[in-house]
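Archive entry. Fields below.
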Amino acid sequence: MQVHRLVWAAMALLVVTATACGQNRLQSSSTTQPITVGLITPLSPPGDVASGQLIQRGAELGVEYVNSQLHGVLGGRKLQLAVEDSAGKNDQGVNDYRLLVTEKKAVAVTGFFHSSVNIAVNEVAHQIGVPTISTQGSAADITAKHYPETFRTHVIDPIRVSAWLQWIQERGFKRVAMVAETTDYGVGLVDETQRQARAKGLDIAFDAEMFDHSATDLTPQLLKVKAFDPDLLINIGVGTPMDLIVDQAREVGLYPQVPMLVSYDGPVRPQWWQLHPQDGNGVYFIAYYSPREPLSNAGQWLARRYQERYHEPPVYSSLSAFGDVLVIAEAIQRANSADPRKITAALASGSFSSWTKATVSFPNAPGAYYHTWSPPVLILHYTQPNQDWQHAELIETYSRKT
Amino acid sequence: MWLAVSPGLLAQFTLAGLMMGVLYALMALGITFIYGVMKTINWAMGEFYMIGSFVQYLIVSHLLGPDLWWLALPATAASVFVLGMLVQRLLLRPMFVGGVERRDEYATVITIALLLLLRSLAAVINGPYQHTPGSHLPDVTLGPLSVPGAEVAAAVVGVLVLGLFFLLLHRTWPGLALRAAAQNRIGVQTAGVDLLRLDMVAFGIGVSLAAVAGGLLAPVYLVYPTNGAVATTKGFEIIVIGGLGSIWGALVGGLLLGLAEALGSALIAPAYQNAYGFLLLILLLLIRPIGLFGERARVV
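PREDICTED_STRUCTURE:
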């Protein structure tokens, strides 16, 4: 009987010891294994592949910066990036998010470019609780629903529109034509422009011609604009359509006779002058960064490393994605945990360093301003052919007015 | 909104539509020609358009310069012709020699996979960039209308290429063999023609027509990995309008689509430019389901 008791006791001790060892090993591995940050961005059509690739570059360098310069997070754990391609499709973006948070254990997800994908993913993020940061989505609904898990580090429509309406008033334009794609982005900007102009009682006549994002022949829209006889043309195309509007507006005799404002920083891309050797000069464009603005130490590191690796200076898409990874890393550090809910709380309450010297924070503000940090909106102007965008004339800097 | 356009503007829309129609026809001709001979649809046609635009861009920008763009065009067509023959030999020929039961499904799967492969490869190799071979052609004034030189050149060369294609088809022995294969594949084989080789040539010619369209439009619509997507959609719209397998159908369908889009944009609203082609297509399907020049199937 005593022998039996001894055997049982020994076995119990063995089980307890084995369990404890197993737990130790689990704890040990969970405190040393890398922490995953998810990246959902368009890397295949019909998404804007060019932007997706630029975002991916920035995010990869963000992870490299955190691991090499900050020695990881939470006492030395490495950060790793899990990249998924949304192809600009809502359903694919949602599947990507589920895969990232369930299979790859991502603690936060960033990299979003297409607003509609971001909006769709946020619905699932609100259920699952792993936070998202919008890298370049500008539609109001990304944050306007006030889901605690959703954040944004990009300019929203009202800020962009407010900036160009102010510039339009300063320049005294009276007949403004907008050629816009029928996406959340294009329709949102047209509506917001007309809404703000009405609200401000501006005496400006608007003409809006819409086109499908996949269209390549925009001559019909531009001929209609020409018949409207505008004194300013706002180009609200993204990616290829933006370039097509520039070329085809020249071909129909509209531009450069009528000045053109491009709605985002497309003209800073390296191929601008290759695509528009003559008609690229004279264009005005919205940007979110100018080299005349000081970069943070991390931003300067990125600029050097990016130049080394890609032999060109970084543009805003890469800077913004780089900054988002840094913000997530700092939030993990502040939360002292890789638990997504604690990271969400840290994001909502803290202020963070990023690529710019300005401090990033996500205020509990009304409407689309909720959890949104916006870089300043700049209007730049090319004044000579083949001008480096870094030397483009800075017309004005518009900061958000709260 | 209706008819609220001046006659001058309407003329400009019509001219733009006709010029675009010629290039649409070139694209559709490739699809319908391959279908006519091989009885299979090449869903990756737009990707050969894309490759044609890239080859044209590379030759013009790195070798010849924009003034000699016309010299690059035969090289573009020839290189894509060879590529097309290789693709046919490696990917499509097995279904004709391997006793594949459902050739249509096989060809659909293979060419859709090819579409994804070529598009993804181009995105990886090209990176996040768009290109243009550039053009030094001055604008052309036609009466009161000013038309971009590159578009006029594209339309004129497009007409020439269509003429050459018809000559090849109606005045040469290979053309005769191709027409015969389109009528009766077994009959051609019994007459001693190497049908497998003929298929290779037909596929090569078909995709090189798309490549020529891509090369001609490279300075107008830019060069990037997904630029063939629209061309594919329009091409298939046209072959349904004109009748699957009909050469004349592709030609007339292309012009009709170009005109429908242009006039719809002028008279109604340019925002629905892509919808006008589909409206025309639906209308035709209701009136004549086999397309303008399609032939009814004869089943015994």
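CURATOR_NOTE: Residues 24-29 of chain A have pLDDT under 50 and may be disordered.
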